[in-house]
Amino acid sequence: MLDTRIEHLLLGMLGIILIGTVGFVVIEDVGWFDAFYMTAITLATVGFQEVWDMSDSGHLWTIFIMFTGIGLFFIIAGHIAQQAVDFNRYRRFRMAKRIRKLNEHFILCGYGRMGQAIARELKSAGKSFVVVEKDLEKIALVAPKDMVVIQGDATLDDILLQAGIERATTLIGVLKDDQDNLFLTLSARNLKSDIYILTRATIPESIAKMERAGADKVMNPYEAAGTKLARQAMAPGIVDFIELILNRGNLDLALETITIESGSQADGKSILDLGIRKNFNIIVTAVEHRTGVADFNPDPGYKFKAKDKLIVLGTVENLVGFEKLCGAAIQ
């Protein structure tokens, strides 16, 4: 729906067309169609020749119509531009309001082909996330999907703060260049020391630099794709089963990572003590210790320690219940 002021300005333009036409009819004593045509080409400033031999009064009338129409055109164009600025300002305000409501969310920096794939997965999993992208054309791809998006350079602290990095749990960096991802990692780690940073490196030599900068995990997409293709070729059934679990589809089944928090009901207890299979009907497939060493198919008598990470398989409902057991104790 058009703004009321724009409607009035457009009506003003129609009025000029009508007045110009009537003026030519009266001053030059020509037909209505010729008068309308002369008014139209004058306002359009297309430079066609005069339809008839015009008198000095007609020339003055033409000049009046031309400058009046051009002036009104610039007023309309300026008002439309102001409306666009106001809309963008409102859109940024609306996005900022949505971001302020987010907590423990993901920040996805970069919305290229890989970023779009990641966004689809996050959205499919029901995760809250913010997209940070400086390319206007790529942002246009985000808007129809009703995602929360910020236009800006993700390597800048101000942009990351706008994305709510102080409340986020994970930052994913898939910017175009390794150098940008390196700067992003440095900025994010400086702003929040405990955020989980996952980024990509297209050059193998960049991996060590990003890890030193503070990245928790650095992935080379080409190596990852090659490894996945090789595993698919060698053991297609196993890979398909894992993909089925991770993608879930119609299955109420998930493979999740749950951390044992200090002072929780699971801290210092074993699989047998907690009756994990009996009470929650889930499977603990592996335990990753604080040292980074992982035990697969752990012994039922192993007592969990704070900060142990459990890789568990089960229904979403049961995993949620078990995660509460592993969470920090209420003070």
What's this model, at a glance?
The chain has about 325 residues and is α/β, with parallel strands linked by helices.
Describe this structure in words.
With 331 residues, the protein is of the alpha/beta class. The protein has three domains: 93 residues, Orthogonal Bundle (Helix Hairpins), CATH 1.10.287.70; 124 residues, Rossmann fold; 77 residues, Regulator of K+ conductance, C-terminal domain (Alpha-Beta Plaits), CATH 3.30.70.1450. The protein contains 13 helices and ten strands. The strands form two sheets. Strands 3-2-1-4-5-6 form a six-stranded parallel beta sheet, sandwiched between helices. Strand 8 and strand 9 form a beta hairpin. Helix 1 runs antiparallel to helix 3, helix 7 packs parallel to helix 8 and helix 9 packs across helix 10. The radius of gyration is 32 Å and the shape is elongated. The protein starts with a helix and ends in a 5-residue tail after the last helix.
In total, the number of strands is 10
Give the spatial strand order of the biggest sheet: 3-2-1-4-5-6
Main sheet makeup: 6 strands, parallel
Helical amount:
40-55%
Task: Give the helix/strand class.
Answer: alpha/beta
Low-confidence parts, pLDDT < 50 over ≥5 residues?
none
- What would the average pLDDT be, to the nearest integer? 82
CATH class of the largest domain: Alpha Beta
Give the tags:
331 residues; alpha/beta; Helix Hairpins; Rossmann fold; Alpha-Beta Plaits; 3 domains; six-stranded parallel beta sheet; four-stranded antiparallel beta sheet
